[in-house]
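Hypothesis: this fold can be encoded by more than one sequence.
Test: take the structure tokens below, design a sequence, compare later.
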């Protein structure tokens, strides 16, 4: 502030009083600036200007497209329609489980049959319909068809059961529920508590005895439905598209609203920021009920015409085989997925793929270089954000260990601040004046834009290449929070934890020397859960025990 005032004073004095030429005024200001320590700014300028200009151009390009969509009241289905017109016979989706290929035309016709069928059943724009199924092509066609009608899809986490599942269906006020046949048992568990007016449809293999009595088989009904485009609903770019639910870490799951503009911005910033290409093929093994799989991944198909390979669930042993089979050029990851791949024994498939980019968030700096060098992936496209957050960051220049960047010279272009949070409670840390404290490199952060903020658990910021650590594992569905929490269970009744309790569990991990409760893990060879003793713990830590 003082330096800025001094520069302004010198400028006014030199020009108005001394009446010096602009060239002399410029040199005077430069010398004053350098003499006041401004050389550091010059160093930062030289080091980051190329990256910042590119990031600024990406942001401006996406903003211009968003303004155009706002003016023309475009929606995701309208944008998808233009993609279909460009290449109707290009492969849009591939489901690895059955090797089913859908062209853009087929996806368009399936989604239109969904819209026409639901309209015939009385659903209209503004209504809500829930989807509860594992990854497959139909998942995309269902919510896209609902969007064509103006119906808002509630995308239910397939790991939810009983109270949490019932809570999501009840609070969504869904008029219809489409569930996969693999989820039938979970629906049967809560059927007696469901609203009797809720219409049930089952997609997939049909076993009448395995579903509630009022359930209808959806697949043959859709085959008979008209495939023409339904009348366009009165929806705009800022209207609701669907709901994505939080993990329920601090209680029951809560719905995050995703509007059409939000869907577009998330997919477009990734596409342009990481220099994706229309002929790229994306390998998407992430859940489609979350934004990473359904927006960052599937969004490239719907909006930019890329082919997306959908896998039901991540498999470390089949990962590279799938990439080779479908000639994938981009793979998606999240959290510890990359570590699981590194823990696999080396094999030929690692060197035979065509993957040029790994896209996701949560890649630890400690394994970043090993991951990219072992699997020969030239670009790691790490980003930071959340479905319910109003801003995000992107590591556009592949800086090792960074989840993004915050411009030091063009900060006004994307005005966000990184502020400190308490690592244990995830509460904002404020100064004596009640104002948030800016975060320095290596400290736990929250992302703040304007008056809104979002604290991401355990994330540390990396500015210009300084290290950060990624998200701590979640305990929303397991009693012990570790990298192997999904395999380790405690035999005492589990009570859903709040943030402070979660932190204690995270610190304990699954070390039997620290945890006093009996622990079990899934023994792959025996095919059952066995006690987790110190010897087994040591084998797991050494990578000798396959999980």
């Amino acid at each position: 502030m003082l330096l800025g005032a001094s520069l302004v004073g010198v400028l006014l004095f030199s020009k108005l009083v001394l009446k010096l030429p602009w060239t002399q005024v410029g040199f005077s200001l430069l010398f004053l600036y350098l003499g006041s320590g401004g050389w550091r700014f010059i160093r930062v300028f030289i080091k980051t200007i190329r990256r910042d200009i590119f990031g600024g151009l990406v942001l401006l390009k996406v903003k211009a497209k968003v303004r155009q969509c706002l003016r023309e009241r475009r929606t995701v289905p309208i944008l998808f329609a233009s993609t279909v017109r460009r290449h109707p016979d290009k492969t849009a989706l591939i489901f690895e489980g059955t090797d089913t290929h859908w062209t853009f035309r087929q996806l368009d016709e399936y989604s239109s049959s969904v819209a026409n069928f639901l309209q015939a059943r009385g659903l209209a724009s503004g209504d809500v319909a829930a989807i509860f199924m594992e990854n497959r092509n139909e998942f995309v066609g269902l919510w896209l068809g609902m969007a064509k009608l103006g119906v808002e899809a509630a995308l239910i986490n397939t790991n939810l059961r009983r109270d949490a599942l019932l809570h999501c269906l009840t609070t969504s006020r869904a008029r219809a529920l489409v569930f996969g046949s693999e989820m039938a048992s979970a629906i049967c568990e809560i059927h007696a508590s469901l609203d009797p007016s809720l219409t049930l449809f089952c997609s997939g293999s049909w076993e009448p005895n395995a579903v509630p009595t009022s359930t209808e088989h959806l697949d043959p009904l859709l085959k008979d439905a008209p495939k023409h485009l339904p009348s366009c609903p009165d929806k705009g770019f800022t209207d609701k598209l669907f709901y994505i639910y939080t993990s329920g870490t601090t209680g029951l799951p809560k719905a995050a609203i995703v509007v059409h503009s939000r869907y577009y911005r998330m997919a477009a910033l990734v596409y342009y920021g990481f220099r994706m290409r229309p002929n790229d093929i994306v390998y998407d093994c992430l859940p489609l009920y979350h934004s990473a799989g359904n927006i960052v991944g599937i969004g490239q198909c719907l909006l930019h015409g890329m082919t997306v390979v959908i896998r039901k669930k991540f498999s470390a042993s089949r990962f590279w085989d799938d990439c080779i089979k479908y000639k994938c050029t981009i793979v998606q990851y999240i959290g510890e997925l990359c570590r699981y791949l590194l823990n696999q024994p080396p094999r030929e498939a690692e060197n035979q793929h065509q993957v040029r980019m790994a896209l996701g968030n949560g890649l630890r700096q400690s394994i970043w270089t090993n991951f990219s060098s072992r699997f020969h992936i030239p670009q790691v496209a790490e980003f930071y954000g959340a479905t319910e957050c109003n801003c995000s960051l992107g590591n556009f220049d592949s800086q090792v260990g960074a989840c993004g960047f915050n411009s030091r010279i063009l900060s006004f272009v994307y005005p966000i601040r990184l502020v400190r949070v308490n690592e244990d409670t995830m509460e904002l840390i404020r100064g004596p004046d009640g104002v948030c404290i800016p975060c320095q490199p290596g400290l736990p952060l929250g992302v703040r834009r304007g008056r809104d903020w979002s604290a991401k658990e355990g994330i540390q910021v990396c500015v210009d290449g300084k290290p950060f650590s990624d998200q701590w594992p979640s305990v929303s569905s397991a009693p012990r929070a570790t990298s192997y929490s999904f395999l380790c269970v405690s035999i005492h009744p589990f009570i859903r934890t709040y943030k402070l309790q979660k932190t204690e569990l995270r610190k304990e991990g699954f070390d039997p020397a620290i945890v006093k409760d009996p622990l079990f893990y899934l023994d792959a060879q025996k095919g059952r859960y066995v006690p987790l003793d110190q010897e087994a713990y040591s084998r797991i830590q050494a990578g000798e025990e396959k999980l």
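The longest strand covers residues 452-460. The radius of gyration is 26 Å.
Hypothesis status: open.
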